[in-house]
Amino acid sequence: MAYAAYRDHPSVVRSPIAPRTTQFHVLDVTVCCADALRVRRSIAACAEAGVVRCEPLLHACSSQESDAPCVRLMIRFPTARYAEVLHRLIECVPSGEIGRLMSWRDHLTRCGLRHGH
Q1: What is the pLDDT of residues 26-49, one digit of tens each?
Q2: By Cβ atoms counted within 10 A, which residue in 9, 23, 97, 109 is the most buried?
Q3: Are 46 and 40 within 8 A, CB to CB?
């Protein structure tokens, strides 16, 4: 299985008057269970990034070459670290699926927290 990347990255628009705040995003990545620890350690070494959720997948991944169990890792990082996070992922695990990139607020809403709070 090779990486499958989906590009629906929102552009970051900042007002020149508004103070600069760190924009966090969440990236869903699906890897084999056996590779999850390696990914978590690699991401932990990236400044301001971390795995915020590890979700075991109960069904087989459709694009996976083997029947090995998989997990979906949700990685939180600031926008400025996007390239470093991708590089670390591809470097430590040669195969997986890179899913949708979403804002931190959208991620919280998806997890059931009203209005992303």
Answers
A1: 999 999 999 999 999 999 999 899
A2: 97
A3: no
CA 95, CA 77: separation in Å to the nearest integer? 21
How far apart are the C-alpha atoms of 91 and 57, rounded to whole Å?
23
Mean of pLDDT values over 76-81 = 92
> Comparing C-alpha atoms, which of 26, 20, 31, 34 is closest to residue 50?
26
Handedness of CA 53, 86, 46, 26 (dihedral sign): negative
For 3, phi then psi, to 5°, come to: -70, 140
Cβ neighbours, 10 Å, residue 74: 19
Average pLDDT of the chain to the nearest whole number: 78
Res. 108: pLDDT tops 50? yes
**H helix or E strand, kind and range, residue 98:** strand 97-103
